[in-house]
Amino acid sequence: MKNYHVSLLLIMSVICPQISGLAEEKSSSQKPINALMITGGCCHDYARQKLILSRGISARANVKWTIVHQGGTKGNVKIPLYESKDWAKGYDVVLHNECFAHVTDKDWVDNILQPHKDGTPAVLIHCAMHCYRTKDNRWFDFCGMTSHNHGPHHAFRVENLKPDHFITKGLGDEWLTPKGELYNAAKIHETATPLAHARRRTDNKPQVCVWTNAYGENKTRVFATTIGHHNETMVDPQYLDVVTRGLLWAAGRDSDDAFQQTSSETDEKIKDLATIKPEPEPDAPPKN
Q1: If DSSP states are collapsed to H, E and C, what string results for 128-154?
Q2: pLDDT tens-digit profile of 224-280?
Q3: What CATH number has the domain bearing residue 45?
Q4: 282: in domain
Q5: Number of compact structural domains in the chain
Q6: What is the spatial distance between Cα 268 and Cα 27, in angstroms, rounded to a whole number?
């Protein structure tokens, strides 16, 4: 498994060094954040989204990525990564951009949650909130929100609830997503702090779509957003600003000098990733 991770990291460095190295050059005095991205599963363009997120974030912050893309396009796959109890060992933060709603084995889910219970910070993107439906609250407690479904596809206006918060301070009072799939927030847990919401088209009721969570006894930092179904939204500079700041906050690097504003040239290169020829999902590593 270790060799598999390293090979993916090297691939990311070779493909687009002109983007991923920008923030590293500007903040070389800080140790890079060692981040693990887990992606794959149903219903989303994860082949492109892994590039958008990794390159978009690394253009704004000093982040070194290991990317694990497993599970094909089905929502019922137990990916090889999670077979190990040490799957998150050595990482400063884990970004979950996966969609495995039909994996319901409680012991399996507990193994995913354990590193986060022990204190490993997390970033949760979009369908991560709809994963691992075990018919109890164990996954929802980690997310900080209970959500069972979403509304129709349309752009929606995100209203900033905490414009002075490190994560949302650059968002402005509101932001119109290019496209969208607004999740219905059935419950916001007591451990969660809403940062932004958008109004449901059917009844105009606000649905929290950006928040933080203090998970478990260790109050592990979790940043989450249900925004991110469409590539067109994910490449938007405002979206990547918020997600990058969310990752920095989760990793305990929530200081303004850790975040670098991108140039318009870099933003255009990131936007091109929405339609770039996708890389195939790598073969799963052989089992030991």
Answers
A1: HHHCCCCCCCHHHHHHCEECCCEEEEC
A2: 999 998 999 999 999 999 999 999 999 999 999 999 999 999 999 999 999 988 766
A3: 3.40.50.880
A4: no
A5: 1
A6: 22
